[in-house]
Design a protein that fits this description.
This protein has about 375 residues and is α+β, with helices and mostly antiparallel strands. It has two domains: about 1-205, 3-Layer(aba) Sandwich (L-fuculose-1-phosphate Aldolase), CATH 3.40.225.10; about 220-350, Class II aldolase/adducin N-terminal domain (L-fuculose-1-phosphate Aldolase, 3-Layer(aba) Sandwich), CATH 3.40.225. It has helices at about 1-15, 55-60, 70-85, 100-105, 115-125, 130-135, 150-165, 190-205, 220-235, 245-250, 255, 265-270, 285-295, 315-335, 350-355, 360-365, and strands at about 25-30, 35-40, 50-55, 110-115, 140-145, 175, 180-185, 240, 275-280, 300-305, 310-315. The strands form two sheets. It has a seven-stranded mixed β-sheet, with helices on both faces. It has a four-stranded mixed β-sheet with strand order 8-11-10-9. Helix 5 (about 115-125) packs across helix 14 and helix 12 (about 265-270) packs antiparallel against helix 14. It binds zinc ion (ZN). Zinc ion (ZN) binds near residues 113, 115 and 179.
Length: about 375
Amino acid sequence: MVLEKLVEFSNFYGSNEELVLAGGGNTSAKTDEVMYIKGSGTSLSTITRDGFVKMNRAKLKDIFTKTYPDNDKEREALFLEDLSAAKEKGEESKRPSVETTLHSLFEYTFVLHLHPALVNGLTCSQNGKVKAEELFGDSIIWVDVCKPGYILSKICFDLMEEYKKEKGKAADIILLENHGVFVAGNTVEELGEKLGFVTSKIRNEIIREPDLSSGEFDGDKSMSTFNILNETFSDDCVISYDPSVESLKVSENEETLKKIYKPFNPDQVVYCKPYPLYIVDEKTIPEKVEEYRVKNGFLPKIILVKNCGAYAVDVSEKGSDNASMLFNDALKIACYAENFGGGKPMTDELTDFIVNWEAESYRSKQV
Ligand SMILES: [Zn+2]
């Protein structure tokens, strides 16, 4: 019964592009003994019963009694091993979401975790923490940005224990800086009410909505850019072109570029690569792409061209569409964040961690 409801609300929220993009977000449901969690690399919009992984709740709880090494690679490998060992029989071939342990902490039947641009306008902003306190008081827990995986779940574990002790009730809404929101409830209706509570409070603060409609771009230059990109990346790459008003604005100069140059959240790193490539003169594309590749060890996926806007390049159509979609998401976040003191990207250290994190590279290959 809970599994049926879980599939239903996962598909419902997953089909709303304001809330879920590509493989983003995840959901879970609990019985006394087990928790069903979205499998890594599945999409909420199309997920079926088989897409969920059945986990042993007692074993998930045990993870928080353990001590893990400080070294990132060793710790995450052991954590992943323990997570895998918490799968119920028959689930061996599946891979639970990297956020499974976070879901396990909520003392409610259903959990919905999303990365909506509107909410991230607040969580990825300079004044996010202060503003969240002002808007929501102690009805939520705010979690400062930190490394995902074990570290994030352990911090949430400690904060949720403290919250329960202080408030006498289990936490049901969590805002994660540079990441997204968790809501939990014993009925599906409660999830909707709690998410609505968060989004409506934030929406009330928004003065300017992002404009993703097509803006005025240089037609000749955009054509020439397209041809040069094709030659540079070879003919079998797929290019999505989106000259949106917002992408044209950030492509004006080095100063405007700063608004979106560094990634706001892990999704952006996974689907767009951490940094866009900025081009003023399209004829320099071949050398700039090579410079980027040498410096970063991979090719750019988002190329911003002055007076032309954003190009997303990938070897597959899905990859190119996802990059374009997630870059638009970053543009929205940057715009919403203007209402909260301006955008606050992730630190370089955290970005590097995510670039090298096996769990995320697995995810990007699936959806
Ligand atoms: Zn997440």
